[in-house]
Design goal:
This protein is α/β, with parallel strands linked by helices and 346 residues long. It is built from twelve helices and 15 strands. The relative contact order is 0.10.
Length: 346
């Protein structure tokens, strides 16, 4: 793992945030925050998948007043996403929120910002200044890296004048190149931890490709303290994608790996649904294990010899192998059950 750029560090609930340590996985609920039961259910599922920080939209007072009820049922830091109305941030703080996200593009009332900062200072609640290329302050017409930095600086100056330094920054655009340039400049300009992502990236197919490229390039610079893979989909796909990105960049090592061949004319069993179900099953497995689902017995165990265990199909059956050594045959209808048992016992 490469050396990380060292930033200021503070506590986010029970997490040491910043410095040059662990990169946290973050997501955002797509439930209505005022629907406490649905929001809690979604957060608990995301926790199980590996989400470490969760954000909720606070659109009105009912959302803000739901925060205490949500917090008492979850286990990870809860972040309130505030736009336009600073009063909602004040309510969220009084409800016990763990972190506030403010958008400089639509919250500019200095008196209210001062009130928010003073409350956060009293309660040791950090603030994320979340700059978005699509909602910059009205006097900044075009999103450039310099303009993004300027939008962030305006809020930072206010916070620093009040002696408040528990600050996290995000400077997201939908353009990979602009986002990369902006984060690189931000890292050189400010001493604060950075929340990294490509905003409005798209669906779980194209958005995943775009996010993977952008986030990886930024992390490769040694910067970034938390990531969100923004997808137009259920947030569980964001968490799964973030884990995979961090694993492949060698920032996480307790994550399963699935090897699966692309199939060809030699494939004699219904492999694709099996591979997809095993992939979904592994999303909830919190250990380092390498599993292979291969199309044929001709070269399946050989190609996946580094796998801890796997299957390779024959006609209406499959062979089970471990570290490239064939152990036994399994009937096709029993492959999923047997492979899941082996995964659990590993």
């Amino acid at each position: 793992m490469m050396n990380r750029t060292k930033t200021r560090q503070f506590m986010l609930k029970n997490l040491p945030f910043g410095g040059n340590q662990h990169i946290y996985i973050q997501s955002m609920c797509n439930t209505k925050t005022k629907d406490v039961a649905a929001t809690v259910a979604q957060i608990l599922e995301l926790e199980q998948l590996g989400c470490e920080i969760i954000r909720v939209a606070v659109l009105d007072q009912e959302d803000a007043l739901s925060i205490a009820k949500i917090k008492e049922q979850i286990h990870i830091p809860l972040v309130a996403d505030i736009h336009f109305d600073p009063e909602l941030a004040i309510i969220a703080i009084k409800q016990g929120i763990d972190k506030i996200r403010l958008n400089p593009g639509n919250i500019s009332n200095k008196e209210k910002i001062v009130e928010i900062v003073q409350l956060c200072k009293e309660k040791n609640i950090p603030i994320r200044i979340g700059v978005n290329g699509g909602s910059l302050p009205k006097d900044i017409a075009k999103p450039t890296k310099e303009h993004m930095i300027e939008a962030a600086r305006r809020h930072i100056v206010i916070l620093e004048e009040l002696g408040f330094y528990n600050i996290c920054l995000s400077l997201k655009c939908s353009s990979i190149d602009l986002t990369l340039e902006t984060y690189e400049l931000a890292s050189k300009t400010f001493p604060y931890p950075l929340h990294v992502g490509i905003t409005e990236a798209g669906t779980s197919f194209k958005g995943l490709i775009k996010s993977s490229i952008g986030i990886s390039k930024i992390l490769d610079l040694g910067i970034g303290n938390t990531i969100r893979v923004s997808l137009t989909d259920h947030p569980k796909h964001e968490v799964i994608a973030a884990k995979e990105i961090l694993k492949e960049l060698h920032y996480l090592d307790n994550i399963p790996t699935l090897t699966a061949c692309p199939t060809c004319g030699r494939t004699a069993y219904n492999m694709i649904p099996i591979a997809k179900e095993i992939e979904e099953y592994l999303n909830y497995v919190n250990k380092k294990i390498h599993v292979a689902v291969m199309g044929c017995a001709v070269n399946g165990p050989g190609e996946a010899r580094e796998a801890d265990l796997g299957v390779a199909g024959g006609k209406q059956e499959a062979i089970l192998f471990k570290k490239g050594v064939i152990i036994r045959k399994i009937k096709e209808e029993n492959i999923l059950e047997e492979l899941k048992k082996e995964i659990d016992m590993f």
